[in-house]
Design goal:
Length: 220
């Protein structure tokens, strides 16, 4: 379902509540509801309105790597989490041991863009690349995120997908929800298809590669 950030004023809040309700009938939501055998005709939605935390760097922590249930995944971007969640920005990524938090592998992105607040919502801006040629998170920050993820999973008794942000050095947890599909289940490919209904940097890169390497050569 859709979410919106930096919404102020009663009129804009009421308008965006309607937009969140409307996302019950998005392609991705309908497909996901069918996967969980939910009756869309009887579905209802409550809308959370939360305090806005404007962090300097944000990301997700996934308690189970879709490719390996013994590992966890942490991703991070500059600015707000919206750029990552919406698929507009490629994140730095760490694969860690799901039990100890030891870093197994890491990937650094270009850090070319970030999402920040405006007077009426958010905007995607180009990043000044000076001083951003290193990984976004320190080992201590990775350890803190993983430790917090572990604590949350122990509280709820299941693997979690959390969103987080750092503001003035303090870690805030913005959201936590159970992972609904793990790598061990047969419908993992179906879940990948559901996620493909959303525009993302990975989807656009895959499309670009197909056009360049498959479709254009075939046309030629």
């Amino acid at each position: 379902h859709d979410s919106f950030v930096n919404v102020t004023g009663i009129d804009r809040i009421l308008h965006h509540i309607k937009l969140v309700w409307a996302s019950l009938w998005s392609d991705a939501a309908l497909s996901y509801s069918k996967e969980l055998s939910l009756d869309i005709n009887n579905s209802a939605m409550s809308v959370l309105i939360q305090n806005m935390i404007v962090g300097t760097k944000s990301g997700i922590a996934f308690g189970e790597d879709p490719n390996d249930p013994k590992k966890a995944v942490i991703e991070a971007v500059y600015g707000l989490n919206k750029g990552l969640v919406d698929g507009d920005i490629e994140p730095d990524r760490w694969i860690v041991n799901g039990r100890t938090g030891r870093i197994v592998s890491q990937h650094q992105s270009a850090h070319a863009r970030y999402t920040t607040v405006t007077t009426e919502g958010t905007v995607l801006k180009k990043k000044n690349l000076a001083g951003t040629r290193s990984l976004l998170l320190s080992k201590n920050e990775i350890s803190e995120i993983f430790s917090t993820l572990t604590t949350i999973q122990n509280i709820f008794g299941s693997k979690q997908d959390i969103e987080w942000t750092f503001r003035r050095g303090l870690l805030y947890i913005l959201q936590a929800r159970p992972i609904t599909v793990s790598s061990s289940r047969d419908n993992n490919k179906r879940r990948v298809w559901d996620l493909s209904l959303r525009r993302s940097i990975d989807n656009l890169n895959n499309l670009s590669e197909k056009i360049e390497k498959v479709y254009l050569p075939a046309m030629t």
